[in-house]
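Objective 1b. Sequence-to-structure analysis of Tautomerase family protein.
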Amino acid sequence: MPSIDIQVLEGVFSDAEKSEIIEHVTDAFASVAGQTIKAGTSVRIHEIQSGSWGYAGNTLTTEAALEMRRRG
């Protein structure tokens, strides 16, 4: 069955927010794949250590990600 992996920086999302992400991602996938597939859909959130992720040559930190969230 489907397996969906999501990577985020550690400390950016609370446990409640991660639970909400899992629920919404599962529901979004099921809206395309169907309810039977939903029952077997696995969603995992992997937290990456601050400073261990980058893009466009820039290192991401938890502090920077939290600032992005504050800006909306």
